[in-house]
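Thread: quick sanity check before group meeting

JM: Hey all, I'm pulling together slides for Thursday and realized we never actually wrote out the predicted structure for the chain we discussed last week. Dropping the sequence here so it's in one place. If anyone has concerns about the input, flag it before I start.
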Amino acid sequence: MNNPGLSPGEPPLIFSAMQRETLRIAALLTVLALFTHLFLLNRKSYWVDEAYAAGLMQRPVSDVLDLSSRSTPHPPGAFLLMRASAAAAGNSPAGVRLFNALAVASGVVPIFLLSLRFLKDKKSSFLAAMTWVVSPYSVSLGQEAWVYGLPSALCLWFLQFSAMQWKGRGWLPAVWFLTGLAGLYTQFSFFLTLVSGVLLMVLTRQMHRVQWIALLLLLIAWAPLVREHTPEMRVRSARLEAAGVTPATAPYRLAMNAPPAVAGLTADGLVPDLYATCSKDPWSAAALFSGLGLALVSLFALILEKNSSVRLRIWALVSWILPFSMFMVDSPGYRQVHLAVIPLTIGMGAAFRRFRPLAVIALILLTVLLAHWYSLDTNAWHRSDWRGAAAFVREHGRPDDRVMVHSGQSGGVAWDLSGGRPDRIALGGDEDPWNMDRNALQPAMVADSILARGERLWLVADLWGPPPLPSGRTPEEDHGFGRDLRVYLFSP
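JM (edit): ok, ran it. Output follows.
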């Protein structure tokens, strides 16, 4: 039976009633997505936030729950998935990232099914889902041990469960509830996914008593987490405002930050600051203009799409706009506006159906960008090759050299996990980022005292700003390992 409120002949997309061809396509997409998301999973060095998470994975689950909530603005859901991944596959970069990669790769299935529901065309839906398979954005979400991959996958599955007819399927309300609860306990912005899912059910006339009860229970279950984190979020907002990180006006945030976020939904952070570097770096220009171009084509195709009901088009357009409402109060990155992925891919599928060569162009372009992304030794968003820096100091340092690591929060952990020399100087704040030591040593003062004793010093700095160089000293050597990580050698 078709969902009420939909046009005749529209596929119900219930797993137990899938046609064999649809099931084969979904299986093929899953295999392809698993390949792209698992390929070279161990290649990239940890960056500091990944090191924060990976170091935490060595602790008991109770510590993961307590310390992750106390020292980050993120709910604990993603940390629990990484903890399970590390327990199953080891604490290597690939081990901590594994379950995250599997979760994100699985998102290709709901993308295909929702596209098929909207477009009613298997070829176009397959091509739309292929953009998730080869998108640098999608692969980077999976190949990162951090907090944005899991909520992206849960977002896609939650919308798929919201699109399915509940009547006669007693398991579906529980799965919908648990998926929504997992999403809300993984990222606060998942609330926008909840709004989108409920809107989809309202527009397709599926919001009945059971659905309203499930929604109420979901919000009640989420309330304790919101109450616990609200004071911390206020402190964080005040700190960002004081530091000038969050511009004061919403129009400025929308004008300056929303376009790179849109481009990043396909091209990822191949260059962290697209505006500042696109005139100098061809990869940056390609990332910016290909991402924006695909998004604009998708949006227009979505508006002009005539093969789906008006209700579904309204839902898709609202879901396109909804995540960017966050720019009214904050400056989210492209990884936090993942709700827009569904209307983006559906729109691309609609465009591909109108002009099939566009699919070939788009997929080749994304594959080229993905190949470049694979070639990087560092995370594309925060380029810090800790593994390379640690190997360089091991190779070129003397046994009696001193090593000091400074990166604000998790540099010491990143250094240790990357095989750095164990005799580094402990500054305090980098040692235990989960219980931030506010009485940490001042790096410039420590460096001055080391050099005054006639010892050589390696300073490893990963900071968004000038490093704490010793007073009046010029480094004898200065080496870069990514955009933000630098290794300096000072001689007395």
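AS: nice. The first strand starts at residue 402 and ends at 406. Residues 209-243 form the longest helix (35 residues).
JM: adding both to the slides.
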